[in-house]
Design brief:
The structure is a homodimer.
Chain A lengths: L28 E2 L2 H10 L2 E8 L2 E8 L1 E3 L2 E7 L3 H8 L4 E15 L7 E15 L3 H15 L12 H6 E7 L2 E7 L17 E9 L3 E2 L11 H4 L2
Antiparallel strand pairs in A: 1-9, 2-3, 2-6, 4-5, 5-8, 6-7, 6-10, 7-8, 7-9
Pfam family, one (chains A, B): Pyridox_ox_2
Protein name (chains A, B): Pyridoxamine 5'-phosphate oxidase family protein
InterPro entries (chains A, B): Pyridox_Oxase-rel, Split_barrel_FMN-bd
Chain lengths: 227, 227
């Protein structure tokens, strides 16, 4: 209902825009906030795109999420971070995350595919200058690698903070895209003798390998043995 | 030696350019052709960046490699493929592939990282119009999903070929970037009580799931049971 206090709370979905409505396979698109968050949170790296001298650049980078904001960090000398600091009001970026879940082998070459979940974020990257927001962002970046880890490590000191640039990208123009399910062969191909089906990809963790110089008595923390 | 016929053969490394020499961590960069090929071939999707209306777009997509050429395909209606067909002489793109190999947990938040291998390709995407090159490219795309699979599926028919656009990007301006090895903590942090080390990521395949409508007697092919 218009005018109620509820109207300021984020809705359950991102509003679609010209850039986030796909030209094809629109049935695979989703704007669901929870789904977008889950896809983002499961990824270790994103691919950050920006324009330099008129041509596109796509770089893999770590990121963190705090609510509806993504943070990317790096050396103050790195290109996208320096360019963000120099851009006014900010640097147009596209940040994309993809999980490959299964190989989809069809009887026809044409219908080969993969099952995947991706999120594409369009937005403007802004330099984070507020020291408190910068600390929150850096904690989120570490906790994105392993949940709870920021509390079990030495926080950044002044020198490290000064050497680190952080940029923020708000989750506003966002879409997810997914392919799930089985093989979509043409009816006339079903009798062909080629094997068809899914090859699911398995992801997991191998046994953690402690640094040789660990302080005596340092044990593997629970948040790692539970992985 | 200049002037010999050998000089036309590709060298073992891509020549570095302004765009492929990183502004930092230059020791992590490599231009080795074999290494670049191996990183590309191990990836199921790449992230393709291009510029649309002045802003960056990054989309995940399947790809294939034939020697020093990458191929990306899609519906003739998809944006980057349509834009390539309309661009003269072609569409500037950046194609990036990343593997995450391990989480690197340091005693200090600052030195948290990941071990990764990435390849960044800068180039111009050209529409593939030659029918023979298009077929070769489509085979490479299927064989990139599972080696040898193109021979064990129905090839694209005329209608499917007409509905599929293929673009080519030559491997010329290319770099790999890698982080390997252990934790790089500051000497004064080594006695801290925080666990530090690597958490290697494990990747593999689950048991293939056959399509319910497989023709009677269709067995799982060797190239899948060997995965």
């Amino acid at each position: 209902m218009q005018g109620t206090t509820q109207s300021t709370a984020p809705s359950d979905a991102y509003p679609p825009t010209d850039r986030t409505v796909p030209t094809r396979s629109a049935d695979r698109a989703s704007y669901d906030r929870e789904l977008v968050h889950a896809i983002l949170d499961e990824a270790y790296v994103c691919h950050l795109g920006f324009v330099r001298d008129g041509t596109p650049v796509v770089l893999p980078t770590l990121f963190g999420r705090v609510g509806e904001t993504l943070y990317v960090h790096g050396s103050t000398g790195s290109r996208p971070l320096r360019m963000t600091g120099e851009a006014d009001p900010g640097l147009p970026v596209c940040l994309t995350v993809t999980h490959v879940d299964a190989l989809v082998l069809a009887r026809s070459a044409f219908h080969h595919s993969i099952n995947y979940r991706s999120v594409v974020v369009h937005g403007i990257a802004y330099d984070v200058t507020d020291p408190e927001e910068k600390r929150t962002a850096l904690d989120a970046l570490v906790d994105h690698v392993v949940a709870g880890r920021s509390r079990d490590s030495r926080p950044a000191n002044k020198k490290e903070l000064a050497a680190t640039a952080v940029i923020r990208i708000d989750l506003a123009e966002v879409s997810a895209k997914l392919r799930t399910g089985g093989v979509n062969d043409e009816p006339e191909d079903l009798a062909l003798p080629h094997w068809a089906g899914l090859v699911p990809l398995r992801k997991g963790y191998a046994t953690p390998v402690g640094d040789p110089g660990l302080a005596p008595g340092t044990e593997l923390p629970g948040y790692l043995s539970d992985l």
